[in-house]
Amino acid sequence: MSCITKHFLNENTILGVWKIEEDLASLMEMVTLTPDDRKKFREFRSNSRKTEFLSVRALLAELIGPEARITYNKNNKPFLKDGSHFISISHSHNLTAILLSKTEKVGIDLEYMSANITAFAFKFLNRKEKVMRDREKKRYHLYVHWCAKEALYKICDKEGISIRKDIIIEPFDLQESGEIKGLVRTDRINEAFDLWYSKYENYALVWTKKPYLAEDLNKQKEFNPTAGSR
Prior knowledge:
Layout: E1 2-10, E2 13-19, H1 24-30, H2 35-43, H3 47-64, E3 70-72, E4 78-80, E5 86-92, E6 95-101, E7 104-112, H4 135-155, E8 167-169, E9 178-185, E10 190-200, E11 203-211, H5 214-223
Antiparallel strand pairs: 1-2, 2-6, 3-4, 5-6, 7-11, 8-9, 9-10, 10-11
Helix pairs in contact: 1-3
């Protein structure tokens, strides 16, 4: 594995992105799997899923130590078993990204820009969102919208949220990297979020973070009873 970035966004929040260059055997040597991890690993049929699984745990070990363990709630949202950090994970093609924070809820999404995104943009864009017409810039602009919506979907726990209808990315002038605003509006959520985006080679990356409230911690313990106190 070769590190692209290990960046402290503040004293409690860290973003890591790695480029996967090892084979499965090499990745396996980089991690220590629990019996539950090994059981889950054996369930994957494809080598790509196995590689993704191992790369996430190898990167997590690099960021905060090999003792860190991932568990999942009923919505398949990841948590650290000891409750020490909020965590969000994304993987696409040969990159894996993890966003961790002790004090903030987090969401991250990474996409390799290979698909004809214009053909299915109607599935995630709504009428309030604006995308530039320039063909090459439009492609990246659409991917930023898609990644931003996925990041917000993750930070809001994925419950009852329509990516197209309930998440709005405010219009912005596209740069290589920058900051944008997003809104999540449902029957139970009405929040604004700051998001940051960046481009690496043919990848789009967007992340968001927001200080957690007491009810967020209570909710985490409900979904993840093994989580310790902060």
